[in-house]
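Hi there. Long-time user, first ticket. I'm pasting a complex I've been working with (about 599 residues overall). I'd like to know whether the download I got is complete or cut off, because the file seemed smaller than I expected. Thanks.
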Amino acid sequence: MTDKELAAKSIEYRQKILTYILGANAGHTGGSLSCIDILNVLYNHTLNVGPENFSSPDRDRYIQSKGHCVEALFVVLADKGFFPESDLETLGKYQSHYIGHPTRKVAGVEQNTGALGHGLPISVGTALAAKLDNRAYRVFTLLGDGELPEGSNWEAALTAAHYKLDNLCAIIDHNKLQITGPTCDVCNTDPIDAKFESFGWAVRHVDGHNIKDLKETFGQMPFAPGKPSLVIAHTVKGKGISYMENQLKWHHGVPSQEQFTEALAELDQARVALV
Amino acid sequence: MGNIISTDLVKGKPNLEVFSGTLQELAATDRDIVVVTSDSRGSGKLVPFGQKYPQQIIEVGIAEQNLVGVAAGLASAGKKVFAVSPACFLTARALEQIKNDVAYSDNPVNLIGISAGVSYGALGTTHHSLHDFAVLRAIHNLIVAAPADGYETDQAIRLAAKINCPVYMRYGKKNMPLLPKTNDQPFQFGKGRIIREGEDLTLIGTGETVYPALEAAEKLAQDYKIQATVISMHTIKPLDYELLTQVAASGKPILTVEEHSVFGGLGEACASFLIQNNYRNPFKIIGIPDEYTVTGSQNEIFMHYGIFENGIAQTALEILKEQA
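Hi, the file is complete. Here it is re-exported in full:
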């Protein structure tokens, strides 16, 4: 897929995220919009995974630690053909498998996540298994910047470096906002790069909305032989919808019908601008 | 300690040693067996395992949440994982990882709680696990077990390596005599074992309390001509309802004995089933009451709370007297 085609995908995904959040009358809007370009590039460029090889032990793994942004994941998995997109009309509805966090009841989901600080340790174990079995698959996990204070992340960061897991890539969706306010005000985790580097990781910064840069960065993994890779993806919460961008209330805000129409129109304009 | 029943019964080893031996045997022919430890290979009797199979042991350091998360990841990729850590830390600090990464995600990790209950004795409350049955019983998709002797330990480990589902097992450190076998039924999780048969009352133990229950039964027979059935209820969940129904049918008293808080463990699990199924047998729970345990060795703590031959026999006599 060309960069332009991928950019068009991102627009389509953003529209679908908003559609299903409106349908469910719930969802993590801002964060799903901040991480969707990352998921787009992972699933449509980087990862060797799809419905056709999901039972293969050699598939690449994607584990979403920031499980609350499940709408982004579900929209991408539907697009990859793991399940019919119409299933997402049941999101959050009575007896639906499509709940507000990733669950393995949904085809294509690797692990049940949602409690924060769980994705990295599980990813470390999965990457360790590849090393033990001499398999070539890689493990990618997406963390929110707000979940970095969870101590389990730092326990796992130690283990990843100790076992030289260069088949592991953690991505931080660094949108710099969490439910209470700016991440640096809630619990300052800066400098994230120096912290992980001191733990023995190889770190890259990337514009988390730049398709070309994301492709190149993921393509260069591992960033250093024998080291786990960390991508600090600088993103904008609510990206793509001007009235949502960097606005705290859209952390899990649901648009009204009018706001939804306005958002879709803005995305339509962005699509026109692409051509 | 009380009377020795026979010289055969005092043979045996700590369950943890049996666990380690069986695991080594399995690892010899199965490269997928992986042990994960949190600086716990010494207390888990796994030093020989680590020396023999260095490629099959993962050390994560003192980091129990990570231990369980890493174990879940390994299991999701096809490894037969035994995550080994003191029961107190494993089931409290890493409870959310057990709930989500193992049970909810259905990653078939075998969680091995070592030095369980009050095995750590005078090290105190931080090192005791008197809550593990209670919290883990409330988590869906997890077998909760406490094998009583070398036979049950060996069989449970072999089965756990095979069945591909989440399991928690706890083990103590003390020398455990081999319990008598009253039938040739193969070991199964969820199927209690009848260790002794008698018609006057039933003593149900689990883990390291089964042997003192058996000693109490022998004392009751010798001194009072009272015959007790003794059950090793090695699996707390799923509980053997069939066996409970069988022993409750007589209407005779039932006494449960556990190295756990009297809240939420074996006793309350049995009571809940019996009451809801209209059995009104006289019933008592012997365990650790709702307090910080007295300082002492495991044996001393057992003695203090009546978890020993004479203590259990005494409670049995009381319940029989109340019934009469």
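A couple of notes from our side: Chain B has two domains: 9-170, 193-323. Confidence is low (pLDDT under 50) at residues 1-9 of chain B.
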